[in-house]
């Protein structure tokens, strides 16, 4: 797997897509509560959808989408309404990112999940039902096609076709400029931060 920690501007994401059909998929399903006891996020990728995968894989329905051999290494997740609802645990997008997901397209997202993904550099793109169904059908083709999400041109393309998408207002420039990455901004402005800190009375005993 490539470096799981994105940084700086994010303009284009390319890769296969894994499809997860269903509405109201909550964070407890994405990463069950027992895994919240971990002291770091390392290893959460292997446990994403742990209970769903265990239940499905023992039945006649076949492999869970995240266990299908041809979907290993997928960068996109295509799902449906109200994805990431439930508790606000940041472990959910951490688990998805550590499995390999770099962008999520859905009909709608839970607000806190959306924000937690933004903080990790994972674009959450809300699209109409007709488009997500078309993308899901294409992703499940035997050819296992590659998709390209171009944040600069607000489009997703595959197999010679291109569809317009819209990012939530204000989100697109954050990805294109790298402003989504708060840590990188702090490091880049270290000199200015130190200068400000040196002038703060309560940090430097200037009130004495």
Q: Could you characterize the architecture of this molecule?
A:
The chain is α/β, with parallel strands linked by helices and 208 residues long. The chain folds into two domains: 12-168, Aconitase, domain 4 (Alpha-Beta Barrel); 178-208, no CATH class. Helices cover 33% and strands 14% of the residues. It has helices at 27-30, 50-57, 91-99, 111-120, 129-139, 171-177, 182-188, 190-198, 201-204; strands at 12-15, 17-19, 76-78, 103-106, 124-126, 147-150, 155-158, 161-164. The strands form two sheets. Strands 1-6-7-8 form a four-stranded antiparallel β-sheet, with no helix packed on it. A four-stranded parallel β-sheet has the order 2-3-4-5. Helix 3 packs across helix 4 (111-120). The chain is globular and about 65 Å long. It starts with 11 loop residues before the first strand and ends with a helix.
Strand tally is 8
Structural class label: alpha/beta
Number of helices: 9
Strand order of the largest sheet: 1-6-7-8
As residue ranges, the low-confidence spans are none
Which percent range fits the helix content?
25-40%
Largest sheet: 4 strands, antiparallel
- Assess the beta-strand content as a share of residues: 5-15%
Give the mean pLDDT. Answer: 87
The CATH superfamily of the largest domain appears as: Aconitase, domain 4
* Gross geometry: globular
What is the domain tally?
2
Radius of gyration over C-alpha positions, nearest whole angstrom: 19 Å
Give the topology string: H per helix, E per strand: EEHHEHEHEHEEEHHHH
The CATH topology of the largest domain is given as Aconitase, domain 4
Distance between the termini: 54 Å
Specify the CATH architecture of the largest domain: Alpha-Beta Barrel
């Amino acid at each position: 797997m490539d470096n799981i920690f994105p940084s700086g501007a994010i303009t284009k994401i390319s890769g296969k897509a894994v499809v997860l059909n269903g509405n109201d998929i909550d964070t407890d399903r994405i990463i069950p509560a027992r895994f919240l006891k971990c002291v770091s996020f390392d290893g959460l990728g292997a446990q994403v959808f742990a209970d769903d995968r265990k239940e499905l894989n023992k039945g006649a329905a076949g492999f869970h989408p995240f266990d299908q051999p041809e979907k290993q290494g997928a960068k996109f997740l295509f799902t449906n309404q109200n994805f990431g609802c439930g508790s606000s645990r940041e472990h959910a997008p951490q688990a998805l990112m550590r499995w390999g997901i770099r962008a999520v397209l859905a009909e709608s997202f839970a607000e806190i999940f959306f924000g937690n993904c933004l903080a990790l550099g994972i674009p959450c793109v809300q699209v109409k039902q007709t488009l997500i169904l078309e993308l899901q059908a294409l992703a499940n083709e035997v050819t296992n096609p590659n998709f390209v999400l171009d944040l600069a041109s607000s489009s997703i393309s595959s197999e010679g076709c291109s569809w317009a998408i819209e990012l939530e207002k204000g989100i697109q420039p954050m990805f294109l400029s790298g402003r989504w990455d708060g840590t990188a901004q702090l490091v880049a402005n270290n000199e200015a931060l130190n200068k400000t800190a040196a002038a703060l009375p309560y940090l430097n005993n200037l009130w004495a």
